Amino acid sequence: MIGKGLDQDGCIAREGSLDRVAAEFAPVVEAARARIAAAFGPDRLHSAYLYGSIPRGTAVPGVSDLDVLLALHDEPTAADRADADAVEAALDAGFDQVDGVGVLLFGTGRLLSELERHDLGWFVACLCTPLLGPDLAAGLPRYRPSALLARETNGDLGLALAGWRERLAAAGSDGAGSDGALRALSRSVSRRIVRTGFTLVMPRWGGWTSDLAASAEAFAGYYPDRADQMRLAAAVARTPTTDRAVLAALVDDLAPWLAAEYTAVHGEKVPRL
Fold this sequence. Notes:
Low-confidence stretches: none
Structural class: alpha+beta
Strand order of the largest sheet: 3-2-1-4
Distance between the termini: 37 Å
CATH topology of the largest domain: Beta Polymerase, domain 2
Order of helices and strands: HEHEHEHHEHHHHHH
Strand content: 5-15%
Keywords: Transferase
InterPro entries: NT_sf
Number of domains: 2
Largest sheet: 4 strands, mixed
Number of strands: 4
Radius of gyration: 19 Å
Shape: globular
GO molecular function, one term: transferase activity
Number of helices: 11
Protein name: Nucleotidyltransferase
Helix content: 40-55%
């Protein structure tokens, strides 16, 4: 079971660690630690976390991005967002090792709430690596690859479809700006689809993985008729495309089917206000 991302008790093991950060990315992580501490301070910041490929040890220099989550004592304000934007810009400009920096902001009250127990709470406890401050995972349960977790993490794919179609239609048919918009859309769409496809089958597969190729293969084992489409989505997630036909196939065919199948199997996610 440990080979499927679970610990000896069958619970999802925390997937990242500062010990797994490759030497090339160590200066980026240290700079992030220092800048976050200086920008927010103990009065605003409860704790900071890394997530994604860098703490998993799978990041590729010049290709991977740096993903950060900040847990604030209070709900984020416009000033907090502005300071986070400044941290993003400084780190992105200062290190060629990363291709973009993203900082998520949440209040600790929300992260520890009952409503988010199997969504953001699980995300912090299992997918985030502590960087600064006390670890919120101490106040969260251990998680198994259950239908409840599947529903609450990705049971709202259908809500994204209209926005994806609007973004696809809004992107011009040519020009560098259009290419950038299409690549960004293809990256976000494909990653969301692959992760949703994996969590659809996660309770049956009986484990956890964040690896996109492994996620697509786990899905393929249960939905062979859609396997090639999911493998295509995984490929696009790794290498974004400007091919409108590929994007249309994902947005107009695979994603609507996946949303409907997800609801049929796991039900709809509890609404957020």
